[in-house]
Amino acid sequence: MIEAGFPRASNEDLLAVKEVSKVVKSAAVTGLARLNQKDIDAAVESVAEAGRPMIHLFIATSPVHRESKLHMNKEQILDKIAADVDYARKRMPYVIFLQKMLRGLRMIF
């Protein structure tokens, strides 16, 4: 598996992931995406020409991220994970999900 970049980070990243996807046919090529539809759509577009396209979704779930950045409680985050993974799976056969945390903090699950 080759994680080729974060397509929504910049137009350059989007184009770079597309180029990797055009030439790599034997390994899975992934585009990184946060849990939101614009990121997911960019990742899907970027790996469309890969032999084995895949997207890699993530969300930060530490208490600091939940409270200060996402403004969500644990239940809301779980609902968002379910909804956005479902959205991604309708567009891409292979989806990886990662719950990003800071070292030393417990998982919310």
Automatic annotation (TrEMBL):
<feature type="domain" description="Pyruvate carboxyltransferase">
    <location>
        <begin position="2"/>
        <end position="92"/>
    </location>
</feature>
<dbReference type="Pfam" id="PF00682">
    <property type="entry name" value="HMGL-like"/>
</dbReference>
<dbReference type="InterPro" id="IPR000891">
    <property type="entry name" value="PYR_CT"/>
</dbReference>
<dbReference type="InterPro" id="IPR013785">
    <property type="entry name" value="Aldolase_TIM"/>
</dbReference>
<protein>
    <recommendedName>
        <fullName>Pyruvate carboxyltransferase domain-containing protein</fullName>
    </recommendedName>
</protein>
<dbReference type="InterPro" id="IPR050073">
    <property type="entry name" value="2-IPM_HCS-like"/>
</dbReference>
<keyword id="KW-0464">Manganese</keyword>
